[in-house]
């Protein structure tokens, strides 16, 4: 693997995870220069078979497994478990996202690996963590959004609880897992000891809803759905213009006065209903009527230009396509063109951090299944050709050529994605 000058150069990660949360964690580490070796079963990570597809490859798998190497080991064999244990003995970090107990059955549990390698940092990402009455319950993003209050707090006041439009529970769990790994690596440098990082998607999702949790902790009252507005401030939300919607965010009296002047309603400032942020929130419907009356004859672009010129925080509501195709996204390099396995051009997301002391983070294509099996066995574990051929002939490991047919036959069901 090409050596790069990045913050995590020299850190090796063995990644047993699949689908989204665990792979995102290791992808973030790989972006920063870590050598991530993805250990897959003979059928491959479930995400390889989940669309959308581009040039025959899953876009979701490609995004979550950028910058990694792939080795196929059958962990349901004794020799496969021994091989995996040897890989972990030479690693800094292990990431897995099986349900609690499964990693132990596969011979790669924390107790087993840390007994041989006490300095190992081991991250487990699961739906409800390693402890608690729900710990063995399978979880998808929608389950966590439902159970953590996120859906209950999202949507119109008189409407149904609403799913947030992306797999935010998976994503935030992957981010917290990478953060936990980095903290554990810093501590290891001081103490020489590794640790088990237990990441619960339930815990992570509740931490994602920091304001909801803070309000409940302070008042004992759970926030109710308020639609496209702020629960405690106004004007702070989405409003209708002639050709669409825009959002504004006004949090203090000085800004409110400036906003009222800009929309031609200076009298709002002297109206006792709108004297404070709290009172404005209580009379949000009356305030909304004034704003939408002003905006009714204006386009979103005109509203955005007028309020921006006055220093009011305002924005059009964009699609993901508009956001990623914007000049701002291009300037920040949020999508990078890479060369796919078939030689075509593919776009992959990059992590969002910029470091003044380092060049741009690397972004290389996701590996094909088993693409690096021989390389890893030879150069990481020091096995010779005879030993590798023996492992391959007995089905303990698979190389890219040998797994193509198996992958084409592999059909993923929701049950498979929960079972080990």
From TrEMBL:
Any single Pfam family the record assigns to this protein: CoA_transf_3
Instruction: Report the EC code(s) recorded for this entry.
Output: 2.8.3.19
- The protein's superkingdom reads Bacteria
InterPro entries in alphabetical order? CoA-transferase_III_domain, CoA-Trfase_fam_III, CoA-Trfase_III_dom3_sf, CoA-Trfase_III_dom_1_sf
Identify the keywords attached in UniProt to this record, alphabetized: Transferase
Enzyme class, spelled out: transferase
**Would you tell me the protein name for this molecule?**
Acetyl-CoA:oxalate CoA-transferase
Organism, by scientific name, is Paraburkholderia caffeinitolerans
């Amino acid at each position: 693997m090409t050596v790069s000058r990045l913050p995590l150069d020299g850190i090796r990660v063995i990644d047993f995870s699949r689908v989204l949360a665990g792979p995102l964690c290791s992808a973030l580490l790989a972006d920063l220069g870590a050598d991530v070796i993805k250990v897959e079963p003979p059928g491959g990570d479930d995400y390889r078979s989940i669309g959308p597809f581009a040039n025959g490859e899953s876009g979701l798998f490609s995004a979550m497994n950028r910058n990694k190497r792939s080795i196929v080991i059958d962990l349901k064999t004794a020799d496969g478990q021994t091989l995996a244990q040897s890989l972990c003995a030479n690693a800094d970090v292990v990431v897995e996202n099986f349900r609690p107990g499964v990693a132990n059955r596969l011979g790669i549990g924390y107790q087993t690996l840390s007994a041989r390698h006490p300095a190992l940092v081991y991250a487990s990402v699961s739906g409800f963590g390693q402890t608690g009455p729900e710990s063995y319950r399978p979880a998808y993003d929608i389950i966590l959004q439902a159970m953590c209050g996120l859906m209950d707090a999202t949507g119109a006041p008189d409407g149904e609880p609403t799913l947030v439009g992306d797999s935010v529970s998976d994503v935030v769990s992957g981010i917290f897992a990478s953060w936990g790994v980095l903290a554990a690596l810093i501590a290891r440098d001081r103490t020489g000891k590794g640790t088990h990082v237990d990441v619960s998607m339930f815990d992570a999702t509740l931490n994602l809803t920091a304001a909801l949790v803070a309000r409940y902790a302070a008042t004992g009252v759970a926030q109710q759905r308020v639609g496209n507005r702020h629960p405690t401030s106004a004007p702070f939300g989405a409003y209708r213009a002639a050709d669409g919607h825009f959002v504004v965010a006004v949090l203090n009296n000085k800004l409110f006065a400036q906003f009222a002047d800009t929309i031609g309603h200076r009298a709002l400032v002297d109206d006792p209903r709108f004297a404070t942020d709290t009172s404005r929130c209580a009379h949000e419907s009356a305030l909304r009527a004034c704003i939408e009356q002003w905006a009714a004859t204006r386009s979103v672009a005109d509203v955005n230009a007028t309020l921006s010129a006055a220093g009011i925080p305002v924005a059009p509501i964009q699609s993901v396509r508009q956001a990623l195709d914007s000049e701002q996204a291009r300037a920040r390099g949020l999508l990078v063109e890479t060369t796919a396995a078939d030689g075509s051009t593919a776009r992959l997301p990059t992590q969002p951090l910029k470091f003044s002391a380092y060049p741009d983070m690397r972004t290389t294509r996701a590996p094909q299944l088993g693409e690096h099996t021989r390389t890893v066995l030879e150069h990481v574990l020091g096995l010779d050709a005879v030993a590798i051929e023996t492992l391959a002939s007995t089905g303990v490991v698979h190389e890219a050529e040998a797994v193509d047919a198996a992958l084409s036959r592999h059909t993923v069901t929701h049950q498979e994605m929960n079972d080990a």
